[in-house]
Amino acid sequence: MPVSVNLDKVLDKAYENLTLSEVLDAPVAGLAGLTDAHGEALAALRITTIGDLGRNKYIRAAVALADLQDRSS
Prior knowledge:
Elements: H1 20-25, H2 36-43, H3 50-55, H4 57-72
């Protein structure tokens, strides 16, 4: 089943027409609202790409905890 998602609001303009693989390989500054300075700070945690950010175990744990609280409210 094909899935279509519009990522225009979460990506900077230069990254809007890339494939999913290309987006995941892009620097974190490719996300709307994040800058190269954010990317430099995240690099200290070995997060250099959007994929690294999304797969980071600490970020995933924080998202899961926040989702649990949101569902119980």
